């Protein structure tokens, strides 16, 4: 039977496209209707369609955790487990949209579908399920291995309760206390005031007895930073001193002026330039004047400054009858060929004729662009030596980065020097320094040699004979590096010859030798042996600091270190017992007028009276004798033990002599590479601020539905 042809069924106008039953319907997680309701989706109103579009298109599930921005912890101690998590967390965005959604016009709703259970766990759920329960809660940022804290003795100090009458001390004693407690007032490298300035002001306002000495300590060397404060000081000194409660003019004894910060530029549109001559006219009691540059603390930076010594400064000192005791000449403010004649001229004036301390910086023997002949190379040394001879009271001389210091200048230095400091002087050698010490070292009490590239230790052979009054001897062989090829090595072949035995003056009080190198273990043994042999004569030595570098095997170096450090400590370190930390001041008990207390306090006196009169029992007298005998035996045993220990320590030393008077004995022997800045363990500890000081260490719970921020 042939199929009958039927006319096609008219399609509903509601269907726009055929529905494929073979394709799986993808349902949004925000829809609650079944797949059959899709046939009637055109019946929905426009408001319902706009509401659905306003919702987030991101699939959401009841088992999905809200995003968290904190890091995953690797610790196993966590209290929160997967079972403790809630089944659903309502996001704040969704709730916000639902709260402000438009009212629905279609009232047709389908029965809610049962929530689908996720069969595959997310990564965060997998990690949490593997963690163990119990233990303490993990805090964000807590280190896995905390650094063990050093146990400190937090025992409160129990004082006597007696406050000494500080206000009754004399003026000069209080002044000395305040000066030592507050110095320095300014950090010249950073150009900032210290907090001790405000401390002195507070002390001056504490009581009337502290007012004058505290202000004298503050104005002795007033901080001329910042420039506005300096203008205020000048304005204060310009007032009639008779109208002020304190005479500020006569309190100023020293002036340290940063020329780059104070004199070279304006202090502001209203203050203008600071006039140093006006300040000198109002400070007639000034004894020390320093004009410094901040680059003077950086070795090798010899750039010329725009500041030049003005004539008004010298004329103001002459008009104010200032008599300086301390001054420094800096070639940064004037080239050497012009500075030396000026130096000779000013040393003849009364303001400079009484100088006792002089500091010379960056004085060169020849300029780099000079084409003078070799015969004229001593011209500058002659002028400088002549200028120094015009100072009859000169006793302290310091050279910093001065290539003019050579054998000719050494032979013409004054014989009255008691202190000589040489820093970064390339022309100083062991030969010319040894010649100077043999002829000019009889009055030297302090010798400081630092960073001199060509200076070895050979001159120390005749040190005891040349410098019989030497008290402080310092030498630092570390080199500053201002070149591109990192030249930090000294330019001598060897530090000391094995046949050269050092000698030490008997008046030495302090020995400090830093980074001794370019020697072998044999020479080092000769050096350390000379110190031990000279121990009986070094009765005034109180501080011994030696830092040595030995390039030998680590086993030999360890043996060498153990041997000689022990010998030096046994020979020089003070062996007196430290004070007992348990000893405290006995608190003063207030006197009470209670009659019962007076009766009780009188009981010991009554018993003492009875014992003196013979009424004490024999058992009491026997126990007292036994106690005294035990105490005496304990003292004798302790004294014998200390004596035996000292004898054993003395037997370890070959010389047998123990000085035992040094408060500080620091000896370091290693093979470290010499650098300008030495780092230790404290430089690598994580104690700096992390930037999260406002965080208290507790994070909100992940399951509370909130965000990280």
TrEMBL record:
Biased composition, class Basic residues, residue ranges: 115-126
InterPro entries noted in UniProt: Leu-rich_rpt, LRR_dom_sf
Compositionally biased region (Basic and acidic residues): 127-140
Record's compositionally biased regions (Polar residues): 588-601
Region (Disordered): 1-147, 576-624, 673-709
Stretches with biased composition (Acidic residues): 73-87, 679-696
Protein name: Uncharacterized protein
Annotated source species: Aspergillus heteromorphus CBS 117.55
């Amino acid at each position: 039977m042939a199929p009958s042809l039927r006319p096609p069924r008219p399609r509903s106008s509601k269907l726009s496209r055929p529905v494929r039953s073979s394709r799986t319907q993808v349902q949004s997680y925000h829809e609650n209707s079944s797949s059959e309701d899709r046939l009637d989706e055109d019946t929905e109103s426009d408001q319902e369609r706009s509401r659905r579009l306003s919702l987030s298109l991101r699939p959401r599930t009841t088992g999905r955790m809200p995003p968290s921005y904190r890091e995953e912890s690797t610790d196993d101690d966590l209290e929160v487990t997967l079972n403790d998590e809630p089944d659903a967390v309502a996001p704040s965005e969704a709730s916000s949209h639902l709260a402000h959604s438009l009212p629905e016009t279609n009232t047709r709703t389908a029965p809610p579908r049962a929530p689908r259970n996720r069969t595959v766990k997310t990564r965060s759920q997998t990690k949490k399920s593997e963690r163990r329960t119990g233990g303490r809660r993990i805090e964000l940022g807590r280190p896995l291995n905390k650094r063990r804290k050093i146990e400190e003795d937090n025992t409160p100090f129990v004082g006597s309760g007696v406050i000494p009458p500080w206000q009754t001390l004399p003026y000069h004693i209080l002044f000395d206390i305040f000066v030592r407690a507050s110095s320095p007032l300014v950090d010249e490298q950073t150009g900032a005031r210290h907090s001790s300035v405000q401390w002195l002001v507070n002390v001056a306002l504490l009581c009337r007895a502290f007012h004058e000495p505290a202000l004298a300590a503050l104005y002795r060397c007033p901080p001329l930073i910042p420039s506005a404060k300096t203008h205020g000081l000048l304005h204060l000194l310009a007032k009639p001193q008779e109208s002020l409660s304190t005479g500020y003019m006569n309190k100023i004894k020293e002036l340290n002026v940063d020329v780059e910060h104070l004199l070279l530029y304006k202090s502001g549109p209203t203050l203008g330039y600071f006039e140093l001559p006006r300040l000198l006219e109002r400070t007639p009691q000034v004894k020390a004047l320093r004009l410094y540059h901040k680059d003077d603390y950086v070795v090798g930076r010899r750039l010329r400054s725009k500041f030049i010594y003005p004539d008004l400064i010298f004329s103001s000192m002459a008009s104010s009858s200032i008599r300086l005791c301390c001054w420094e000449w800096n070639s940064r403010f004037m080239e050497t060929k012009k500075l030396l004649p000026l130096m000779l001229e000013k040393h003849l004036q009364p303001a400079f004729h009484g100088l006792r301390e002089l500091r010379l910086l960056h004085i060169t023997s020849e300029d780099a662009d000079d084409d003078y002949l070799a015969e004229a190379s001593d011209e500058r040394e002659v002028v400088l030596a002549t200028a120094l001879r015009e100072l009859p009271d000169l006793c302290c001389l310091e050279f910093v980065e001065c290539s003019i210091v050579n054998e000719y200048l050494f032979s013409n230095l004054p014989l009255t020097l008691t202190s000589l400091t040489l820093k970064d002087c390339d022309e100083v050698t062991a030969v010319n320094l040894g010649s100077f010490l043999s002829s000019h070292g009889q009055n030297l009490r302090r010798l400081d040699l630092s960073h001199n590239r060509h200076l070895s230790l050979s001159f120390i052979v005749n040190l005891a004979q040349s410098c019989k009054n030497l008290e402080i001897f310092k030498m630092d062989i570390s080199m500053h590096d201002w070149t591109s090829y990192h030249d930090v090595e000294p330019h001598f072949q060897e530090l000391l010859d094995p046949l050269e035995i050092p000698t030490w003056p008997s008046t030495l009080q302090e020995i400090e030798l830093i980074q001794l190198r370019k020697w072998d273990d044999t020479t080092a043994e000769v050096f350390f042996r000379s110190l031990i042999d000279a121990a009986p004569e070094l009765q005034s030595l109180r501080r011994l600091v030696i830092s040595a570098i030995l390039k030998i095997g680590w086993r030999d170096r360890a043996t060498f270190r153990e041997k000689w450090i022990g010998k030096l400590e046994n020979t020089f370190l003070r062996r007196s017992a430290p004070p007992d930390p348990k000893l405290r001041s006995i608190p003063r008990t207030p006197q009470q007028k209670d009659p019962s207390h007076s009766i009780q306090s009188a009981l010991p006196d009554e018993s003492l009276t009875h014992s003196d009169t013979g009424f004490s029992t024999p058992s009491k007298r026997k126990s007292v004798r036994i106690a005294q005998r035990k105490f005496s035996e304990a003292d004798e045993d302790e004294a014998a033990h200390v004596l035996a220990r000292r004898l054993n320590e003395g037997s370890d030393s070959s010389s047998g002599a123990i000085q035992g008077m040094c408060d500080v004995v620091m000896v370091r022997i290693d093979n470290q590479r010499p650098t300008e800045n030495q780092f230790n363990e404290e430089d690598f500890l994580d104690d700096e601020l992390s930037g999260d000081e406002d965080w208290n260490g507790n994070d909100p719970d992940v399951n509370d539905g909130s965000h990280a921020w």
